[in-house]
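Q: Sequence in, structure out?
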Amino acid sequence: MNRYFPEGELDKRPADIAEAEEYMRSGTIAEAVCYLCTGEHDLMVDLGFMKGRIPRSEGAVGIDDGSTRDIALISRVNKPVAFRITGIDGDTAMLSRRLAQEECIRNYISGLRCGDIIDAKVTHMEQFGAFVDIGCGIPSLIPIDLISVSRISHPSDRFTVGQNIKAVVKTIDNGKITLSHKELLGTWQQNADRFGIGETVTGVVRSIESYGIFVELRPNLAGLAELKPDIPVGSKVSVYIKAIIPEKMKIKLIIVDTFTNDKKEKPSDVEYFITSGRLESWKYSTDSSDKIIRTDFCQLP
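A: Exactly. Output:
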């Protein structure tokens, strides 16, 4: 069982000094909120009964050698941090986030293999992808093209910061793990089975091409509608399902109405078709289609 949760999910800390001393003896990983990053980039943590200090050098794996930048420490203010207690000096507990991360890497992350389905927590997003915490603040990236089959303009179209998600290990390169997400969201047929010809449903305009408008019905399923003026990308629309063609993996749509909303809506909750285990390969295509879309996961020796 995985004991190494993303930060914010452990919810475990000592209740008093006696328990803090026991945590120190046993090497137990705890978690509390960082309320201050000092000018020296030490992290100050609120334990409730006393304060805790994480010296800069103990703030994260890679801080000392420069492979982790100090922004990784600064950005922890007002957020939970994982740590091990290394000492008690008067009214201050001395803490190490680095030791918690090294234990997580040694006992959990180093044992991951390509295709493993894991828990993760979205920490921040860039145009090129979503960064997630896979345990004790250890970061990993889901590139934007691996978030879903349906193309999105930004990871915030699919995720929110702080969201707990599932992901699958895509590659491992010198200990650096890259994740994928789309394989857990269902095949073309699994998604298409949620719809029927003649239904009118809600969708989101994801791209506009010279030959039509792609409307996302589900994160791994989009259909094509005829061109219509004054419909921007990102618009919510109602569409009539004219045809579902499994052998061509196509859904033909007619846009019935559009809904404008200046305020960006929160992404819908993710529905997963696979939530645990390991994938050796995943096939998105239908059995009747000549076009093969699949993912093959590397396997470590």
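Residues 188-258 form a domain with the OB fold (Dihydrolipoamide Acetyltransferase, E2P) fold (CATH 2.40.50.140).
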